[in-house]
User: What shape does this take?
Amino acid sequence: MGLRILLKNTLNIFKKKRLQLLAIGIIIGISSFLYTTMFYTLNSMKDPFEKFVKEYNQEDFSINIVDGITSSDIDLLNEKEKSTVNNMLTYSLNDIKNKNKQLYNKILDNRIKRFEDTYKDFELELRKYKEVNFTYKGEGNKITFIKDGESINLSYIEEGDKPKSNNEIAVSKIYANKNNLNIGDSIQVNKNLYKITGYVLFPDMTLPINGSDFIIDNSKITPALVVDNEFENISSKEEIYLSGVVKKEYNKNYGSIMNKFDKKVVATFTENKDLDFITNIISTKNQIRSGAIYEEVKSGQEITIILSVIMLIIAVMIVLILIYKIIRNEKSQIGLLKSIGYSENCILIPYLIILIIVSLPMLIIGYIGGVYASSKMKDFYLDFYLIPDAPIKSNLFILATSVIIPMLIILLLSYIIIKKLLSKKVINLLKENNIEKVSKLNKISNILLKNCSAKNKFKYSFIFNNTSKFVVFFIGIFLSSMLIIMSFMMIGFFEKMTTDYYNDVDYVYEGYVDFTKGLPSLKEDEEQFISIESIKYKGNVINIKGISPDNKLHKLYDKKYKDITKDLEKGVIINKSFSKIYNIKKDDIIEIEINNQRIKRIVSNISKDYGNETIYWRLEDIEHIITYKKDLNLGINKTYFNGVYSKSNLDESNYISVINKNDIISQSKLMQKYVEIAVYIMIGFGIFIGVLVLYILTTLTTEDNYYNISLLKVMGYSKKEVNSMILNSYLLHAIISYFISTYITVVGFDYIIGYMGKEFGIVMPFEFKISHLVSGLLVIIIIFFSGTFAAKKRIDKVSLQEVLKEYR
Assistant: This one.
């Protein structure tokens, strides 16, 4: 009976704070929701993925190789073969294959043998693929034909069968679903008609990206499997790299070998002249096309834990502040209850029951919502990642960590606080006044503000009266500010990585010459260029583009959008990615080895485009370098080139591949859409959290200071002045917290940019501008006025008589 009365009385006390409790419950629910959603999503992807890559022997590392002949290659050729290579109209392995397949195979076999002789723990296999652009249903599509591995990176058929004849093909399931294609249907890829026999996945192509064009739209791009004979027949440039794994006989020491891989292999291969054909070696965990999923799962779980813990800390601290405030206000009644024989536990239980009533339903709602949302989130991830799908299964660990553990933490900490307050002697509970001790932060702020007026001293030190409130306030505003600044920095980053480049150039078609057909004659709206890929610079792969300073189709621009193409006459122009990764500035000297020549050039300017690290070179200069001492038999063409830009259609019979820039722009639209959605969600979530935290804290502050507010009104201060003195301290410190958060966020993004560039070779063009700082500040001010609106209303309602109650 006594417990029921106490519970009813406690419930009446908490009813007066139902909106604050609801806000706290929402924060607790969001914490549970975030954790449940992300961990169910990532776990449902992780388990089938790990099984997939193990069974189909995913590469442990990949080796990018020089797309041309190196000194060590030539040393292993006989005199006849050396003469053949020297007189070829070529700079690529692909062209060597077209001229002399036997020589091509010998070069690659020698490369594999040299590596395996040097590093005996590993075995290599050649990996080949061809990219083909085609039109499907009136839109540009891209298909990547991947030649099946012999023992490494084996193809996995999710459904259906492997192709068995030249007119059969297997594509990704998501591509088929998004284009309403079923097994048995046909698909036209340029001149070839294929019958779909199944849905395929490749363990080294879990994220369909090659290079630095961050374009992922699985409704328009797909990997594909055909029989080996058909792969060789496909007219397109053949791309190659070497896939490597630990030899089976050393699998017992697999962990130890791979842990030392970077130190023993990646850091040492450049010292071996026999391995000069290697441009770089990348372990799978650092390879974006195959290893991004590992980083996604790891970082996704880490970020989820951090966000969930931050939300839980905010909620728990506010709960403890609220409990402390209620117990302090009710101490006289509690002292009376103790004096008539109620035990501390009997008084304590109703408070814990109320906390369970408030917290547990919100945690359960968050969990249930997270379970439902995880299915949608998994589908979102599978829009990008090409990995096996699997149903989401219930997990007791996730249930415990998203519902039971947070509930126990709230109850345990609340129990400790309440128990400490109730442990005081009855006489102290009955007589002790309500004046709180001055916090250390308040003392420090008073010292710093000692020369200010009493009004300003009160206004700006007021927030430090309660250290716990200030900590919660700072964390809430910090998190809100961080999300807002991050979202602003993301605006436009995807366009800078992809579409900005294609929007700046005036050509539509980009063709790569098929040298077996000879150099094509150029039409009026066509311009030649030279493209050299897989050139080594400081141990990494870069691209060289040779264009004329007077060209009309491929102008170069600096960050102020000034035409800098003419600067090619003074030296080379590097793009933004090259500049950031290698910290190269205008007027620096760079040195590169091309065609066995070490070439030094001054950097005359930096173009604003991102993407692959690229050096733009004067066409005539680079043409002279790569044709040095070669008898090319160019015929009617006076200069060498291997690519053509054009405004009109190119005759595809003369080219290995033709790229339509409009197809790439079209394929990028989905990613642009997702980036925009992410920006809006982050801004919205940041505002929501900021408003909730400010609402709870400012209303609690108002309730705690009815006496002070009333006293200020008795002293003659207007409502506006009282509002300013009580709440404007929050505004000032919100702005200070915002600037601290902005600085940390910008520094953090700089680290992310450096990490992505170092580990994955991708420069993420996140930029912080003064406009972002101003816009973010305006949003924080809006959050302040929204979050303190209710508190201002309460301050206005405080009567002058409140001050008299203190002396009743």
